[in-house]
Amino acid sequence: MQKRLLALAILAASTSVSTQADIVGASAGAYMWKQSWDGHVKSGPDSIDMNDDLGYDDETGKSFYVALEHPVPVLPNIRLQRTDLDISESNQLSRNFTFEGDVYTAADTVNSTTDLTHTDATLYYEILDNWVNLDVGLTVRMFDGEVRLATTGREGSIELDAPVPMAYVNARFDLPLTGLYASALANVISYSDSSVTDMSVGLGYEFGVVGLELGYRNFDVDLEDDGEEAKVTVDGYFFGVVIDI
After folding, report:
1. What is the 3-state secondary structure (H, E, C) of 176-187?
2. With the C-alpha atoms ordered 19, 20, 23, 25, is the resulting torsion angle positive or negative?
3. Alpha-carbon distance 65 to 182, whole Å?
4. What does UniProt give as the signal peptide span (predicted)?
5. Residue 21 in 3-state DSSP?
6. Which of 16, 76, 207, 235 could in theory staple to 218 by disulfide, Cβ–Cβ 3.0 to 4.6 A?
7. Average pLDDT of the chain to the nearest whole number
C-alpha cells in the first residue's frame, strides 16, 4: 500500500512539474512611434515653449520590450522595456528669456535637445488569464535624459535622471476565433507637484506566435524641483510587431 501511495505521489509530482513547465512563457515586442511634442520647460523666471521658442514638431522613436512569465505563484513576473524619446532642433528666437542664469536674446539661434529616454523594469502578477488578460504590478522607470539649450557663448541644462516608481496595469481582450485583440497599458504616478502618466491603447491581429499592433500612446510628464520645471506631452500613433511564445 505504501509503495502504491509513493508511486502515485511521484506520478502526481511529475505531472505537476510537467504542467508548470508548459505554462512558462515569454514575449517580446518592437515598436515605431510617431511622436508629437508639446509643452514647456523652465529653469529661472521664464517659461520656454517647446513649439514657439525651440521649434519642436514631430519625431520618430523606437520602443522594445521583453517579458517572462513563470508558474511560481509567490514570485512576480518580469518585464523590461526601453523607449527612445528625444528630440533636437535649431531655432531662431523671437523673444528674450532666461535659462539656467543665462539670457538668450531675440535673433539668437538656439540649439536644443530634450531627452526623456527611459528604461522600465516592471514586476507584475497575472490576475486574469483567459479571453481577458489582466496584469498588475509596479514599474521603476529610470530616466537618463536632460533638457539642454546652447547658443554662442552660453549653454545650460536640466538633468532628468531620477528613478520613478509607477503603478502598472496591462490588459488585453481577445476576440475568440478571430485572432483579433484590443490592448491597454498604463504606467502612472502622482506625488506632490509632480506626475508621470504613460498610457497606450491598441488593436492587434495575431497569427501563430506573431502579432501586429497599431495603437496610440500618450506620455505626460510634469516635474518640478527647486525652480526647475518640465511639463511635456509626447503623443502619437505607433506600429509594432509582437512575439508571444
Report:
1. CCCCEEEEEEEE
2. negative
3. 18
4. 1-21
5. helix
6. 235
7. 89
Residue 242 amino acid letter: V
| pLDDT of 106 | 94
**Residue 16's pLDDT is what?**
37
DSSP state of 73: T
Q: Per the domain annotation, does 214 fall within a domain?
A: yes
Residue 39's pLDDT band, with cuts at 50, 70 and 90, is very high
Alpha helices in the chain (DSSP H): 2-22
Task: For residues 165 and 108, give the distance between their C-alpha atoms in angstroms, rounded to a whole number.
Answer: 39
Count Cα neighbours of 172 within 13 Å in the Cβ-side half-sphere: 17
Within 13 Å, how many C-alpha atoms sit on residue 162's CB side? 12
- Give the Cα separation of 98 and 52 in Å (integer): 15
* pLDDT grade for 118, boundaries at 50, 70 and 90: very high
- Within a domain: residue 235? yes
pLDDT given for residue 23 in this prediction:
66
Q: Would you say residue 30 lies in a domain?
A: yes
Range of the domain at 111: 24-244
What's the pLDDT tens digit per position in 188-232?
999 887 899 999 999 999 999 999 999 999 999 998 877 789 999
Grid cell in block for residue 121:
523594469
Considering the domain boundaries, does residue 211 fall inside one? yes
Residue 163's domain is classified under what CATH number?
Answer: 2.40.128.90
- Specify the pTM: 0.86
All three cell numbers of 227, joined, read: 525652480
Class of residue 220 by CB neighbours under 10 A (exposed 0-12, middle 13-18, buried 19+): middle
Strand 154-160 relative to strand 194-207: parallel, antiparallel, unpaired? Answer: unpaired
